[in-house]
């Protein structure tokens, strides 16, 4: 079955930028929607963004205008460019594959900390 | 945005006993294609979420048949027929009918 591996997390100052990556393997990446979901430590899941197989993009209101999702099918990769970062963006960020209006494969997550 | 509300938020259960988690949406999750894109996830401590149920009542491969999903419209339920120790964790519902997708707050299942 497929696998997703996130990278690019780290510590960044408020107002700064960070780019997350997600590498896919084991399935036809170009055929699927792919999503970003985040989880602050000790809290619940928050859906962040998605890009479908036609490269239409979708965002949660909390990140719209600051985050940009993109994909590179030839590299089987998903990206999340995060600008104007705030303390409340601190979380573990997961990428996930979308099927049947749900998320069937999840990565292990990458941690983003926004702090001065 | 569609708001997903779960109850209870904490669920202590005796081993071998049944458990039920409710999830309500602020509007109908019936898609124009006739499907209901309501799914359930389990997150064990220290792990990534795992999908259990998709499209209201379809169990994922490898998910024990003691897990079942049901409901309609705006009212949904995840049932565990007999709780086992490995079921400890947090359970989330999620709607994928309308953008943006949204999750419930989570229900923490623990053993009494």
Please give a structural write-up.
- The complex is a heterodimer of chains A (116) and B (112).
- Chain A is mainly beta.
- Chain A has strands spanning 3-7, 10-12, 18-25, 33-39, 46-51, 57-59, 67-72, 77-82, 91-99, 102-106, 110-114.
- In chain A, strands 2, 4, 5, 6, 9, 10 and 11 form a seven-stranded mixed beta sheet that branches. In chain A, strands 1-3-8-7 form a four-stranded antiparallel beta sheet, with no helix packed on it.
- In chain A, β9 and β10 (102-106) form a beta hairpin.
- The termini of chain A are far apart.
- In chain A, 39% of the residues are buried.
- The mean pLDDT of chain A is 97.
- Chain B is mostly beta strands.
- Chain B has no helices and eleven strands.
- In chain B, the strands form two sheets. In chain B, strands 2, 4, 5, 6, 9, 10 and 11 form a seven-stranded mixed beta sheet that branches. Chain B has a four-stranded antiparallel beta sheet with strand order 1-3-8-7, with no helix packed on it.
- In chain B, β4 and β5 form a beta hairpin.
- The radius of gyration of chain B is 13 Å and the shape is globular.
- The termini of chain B are far apart.
- The mean pLDDT of chain B is 97.
Number of alpha- plus pi-helical segments of chain A: 0
What is the beta-strand fraction of chain B? over 45%
Structural class of chain B: mainly beta
Strand content of chain A: over 45%
Number of strands of chain B: 11
Largest interface summary: A-B, 23 and 29 residues
Residues in helices of chain B, as a percent range: under 10%
Average of pLDDT of chain B? 97
Unreliable spans of chain B: none
Question: Can you count the beta strands of chain A?
Answer: 11
Unreliable stretches of chain A (pLDDT < 50, length at least 5) are none
Shape of chain A: globular
Q: Write the H/E string of chain B, N to C.
A: EEEEEEEEEEE
Q: What is the rounded Rg of chain B?
A: 13 Å
Q: What is the 3D shape of chain B?
A: globular
């Amino acid at each position: 079955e497929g696998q997703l591996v996130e990278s690019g997390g780290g510590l960044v100052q408020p107002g700064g930028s960070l780019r997350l990556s997600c590498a896919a393997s084991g399935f036809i990446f170009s055929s699927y929607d792919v999503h970003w979901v985040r989880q602050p430590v000790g809290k619940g899941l928050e859906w962040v963004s998605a890009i479908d197989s036609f490269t239409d993009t979708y965002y949660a209101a909390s990140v719209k205008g600051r985050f940009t999702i993109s994909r590179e099918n030839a590299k089987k990769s998903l990206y999340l460019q995060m600008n104007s970062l705030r303390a409340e963006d601190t979380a573990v960020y997961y990428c996930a594959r979308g099927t049947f209006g749900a998320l069937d494969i999840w990565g292990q997550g990458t941690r983003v900390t926004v702090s001065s | 945005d569609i708001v997903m509300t779960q109850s209870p938020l904490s669920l202590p259960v005796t081993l071998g006993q049944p458990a039920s988690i409710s999830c309500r949406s602020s509007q109908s999750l019936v898609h124009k294609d006739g499907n209901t894109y309501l799914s359930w996830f389990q997150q064990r401590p220290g792990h990534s979420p795992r999908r259990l149920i998709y499209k209201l009542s379809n169990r994922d491969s490898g998910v024990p048949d003691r897990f079942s999903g049901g409901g309609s419209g705006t009212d949904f339920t995840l049932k565990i027929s007999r709780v086992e120790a490995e079921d400890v964790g947090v359970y989330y519902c999620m709607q994928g009918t309308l953008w943006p997708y949204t999750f419930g707050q989570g229900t923490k299942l623990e053993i009494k």
